[in-house]
Amino acid sequence: MGMRESTLMWIQYITGLGILVLGALHFASLTFLAPGGYPGALSYWTVISRYTDPLWAAALEAFLALLSYHVFNGFRIILLELNQGSAWSKAVNVTMFLAALVVFLYGTRTIITFYLGGAA
After folding, report:
1. Would you tell me how many other CB atoms lie within 10 Å of the CB of residue 29?
2. DSSP 34
3. With pLDDT > 90 as the criterion, what percentage of the chain qualifies?
4. CA angle, corner 46, sides to 58 and 41, nearest 5?
């Protein structure tokens, strides 16, 4: 038995707030906090330094986790409103879970690869 819809919606709201906070930090790191502004934020060495810093890598991983849940749960909610069948609901739930998992794992692979000094 899965979680109740009300619980999933609370998680949706909480992830939205987390995305707001981490998204603001991410935006700030690309603009006024970056050395040299936006062009400097996109330089190779600045990007590499972000990924190899444990705090930034953790923040990027948290941002990825929040976004993965929030986006695919949002898609799930929209798709469930299109049709009300049991088979449809199960297919949507499984598909959105797997899609979120693939995105999360691929993003995590990228963060870990750069953190360890490799190239994605």
Report:
1. 16
2. S
3. 66
4. 100
pLDDT at 115: 86
Q: For residue 90, give the amino acid letter.
A: K
Torsion of CA 89, 91, 96, 101, to 10 degrees: 130
CA distance 106 to 85: 31
The contacts of residue 41 (CB under 8 Å, 6+ apart) are: 29, 30, 31, 34, 35, 47
Cβ-count burial of 68 within 10 angstroms (0-12 exposed, 13-18 middle, 19+ buried)?
Answer: buried
DSSP, collapsed to helix, strand or coil, labels residue 33 as coil
**Hey, what amino acid is at 97?**
F
